[in-house]
Amino acid sequence: MKLKVTRENAKGQPVSALILGHNVEMCLTTADGLLSDRLRNPKFVGPPHRMTGVAPEWQGASAGRNAYELTPGAGLMGSEAQHVQMSQPHGTPALHQNKVPVKAGEELVCELWARVRHEPVTLKIALLPLASRSPEYDSGTISIDTSYFKRYTVPLTVSRDDDEARLSLRVDGLGVFWIDQIHLRPKDEPLLCTRIVDEMARMQIPSLRFPGGIVANAYNWQHGTGPVHLRPAMLEAAFHQDWHLNYDFGLDEYLQLCLDQDIVPTLTLNVATGTPEEAEAFATYCANWFRNAGVEPPLIYWHIANHPYHDTTAHMTPDMYAHVLQTFVPRVKDNYPSSRIVAVMGRGGLTGPNSSTPWKDVLIAEHELIDVVQFQQYGGCDPLAEPQTQLEKLSTCLRDFQTDTCAFIAESRSKGANWNVGVAEWNWWHQASHWDGRAFEEPPTVLHGLFIAGTIHRFAAMAPDFEIAHFYNLVNCMGILNHWGAEVEVTDAVEIFKLYRAALPGQRVPLDVATDSEHDVAPVDALCLTDDTHTWLFLTNRDLRESAEVSLSGFNVTGAEVEGFIGTTTTGTFIRLKARPTTDRVEVSPLSILRVKLVEQA
Predict the structure, then answer these.
(1) Which of 79, 163, 285, 354 has the fewest beta carbons under 10 Å from its own?
(2) Domain covering 2-12+507-599 in this structure, CATH number
(3) Model-level pTM greater than 0.85?
(4) Is CATH 3.20.20.80 what the domain over 17-36+190-504 is classified as, yes or no?
(5) The 95-102 sheet, strands edge to edge
(6) pLDDT digits over 20-41, tens only?
(7) Where do runs of H (alpha helix) occur along 293-365?
(8) Which tens digit of pLDDT belongs to each residue from 113-128?
């Protein structure tokens, strides 16, 4: 197919980098992915095994040689602590965890908080292969010698790669003790995974939503403040699954990350198990946190709930949501003046019979409390459908999203609501589930990448009325940055966001696009952004087989370079096209995303 892209002389519109925001939802494995810890259930969250009395992910000695109890209320933070009573001086481990991933040459540190009853206990901590009778990699000995919880550390070095290593705790003789928590981290690595934090810095993430979506209905921000070893770990009630809330990455770490990487904070308020008073204290804490860090409190976006229009633990009527806005918003703004208030509504409510839906009508009535209205935008289709059908569904989804959002903006303006719009969560989602036992995973494919690029184009096309968006999800749990054990994966989706981040913030350049495509929705997209030094032209081709020959008119192509990604199948990954010179004609292969970098004329 042929495409002619002409740069028009009309004035462009500013496009904010905030359209490239992300989510970190504190459910399932997201917190684990942000942390450097290698162990599962390091704080011994129950319930205990009904036969052994040992916390999940841990094992005790076999054949009933010891006595175990996961004692409620006996831990440092008032939660459980693992009680161990060595009744016989056998050589079996008092406690151990299998399938701990390690790398050759790594220097690790095992940290534990423990206390003893009656008399000191000598404890040997070893890292060894899973196979019985194998020699250990390394070990160290400590003496638990206090009646109160105390921190102990043991250095451990690994001699080879092993995804199934075993951390073992053995007692020399008899003894009775409690363990509150055990962690295994690389030596000198802080609480957070350095490779994840460094990659986030390279992404230049403009905004980060926390603690996320549905999980906010059970999330208590106060648990994520103060000393990490005193933070609770508990079952998470929002999803009604056997998932844990891990507060080791909490509000303090989130705010520090935002400060360090110049990220605009976006915080979701708990309007289910939280209260207006708690929200007020939340806002006050954030303001004081930044002042204590020596900076003026920056702009924060406050999400007033996460899709309470759906059947979650925060489900409510439109009138109830109006009351939430009236009750929560003044408390937040009084205590954190530099705030943007985000109200939420369902994607289906953007349009409706006679352009009226109960939820939208309530928001219009409360528009003076609202700065931004956000909804969720998930595309998806039958994962077993033919690739061409999936691509057509994707194109239709993009078109309908922009049409409906523009109609909502126009209607809002006509009714006196000057708010902007945004998207709280968005992604292509057609596989992950809450019931498949795979921790809500959906590895990004070429199809996901094309949806990401196409959606960013729609966001930019609606600027400046479209203000901010957050992709779901950044780390693990439908993540595009994945951290499992000792491995960190940077997916194609991360690189696509980087491709666009270089051009934002910028001015959208009006384009005239003429094509001979016979598709109902043209599979080729064009977006042009400019700053003081460069013009950036983005071209995507969602056609399964046909290349697009794009001719450029009105552009200075001297010194222009093209780079990007080319797919071969919708279910595969991209091939990276490194920067290369180009002319006024660009071939856009099927299933591809390209960026043409042009030097802006003086």
Answers:
(1) 354
(2) 2.60.40.1180
(3) yes
(4) yes
(5) 95-102, 162-171, 121-128, 138-144
(6) 999 999 999 999 999 999 999 9
(7) 318-335, 358-365
(8) 999 999 999 999 999 9
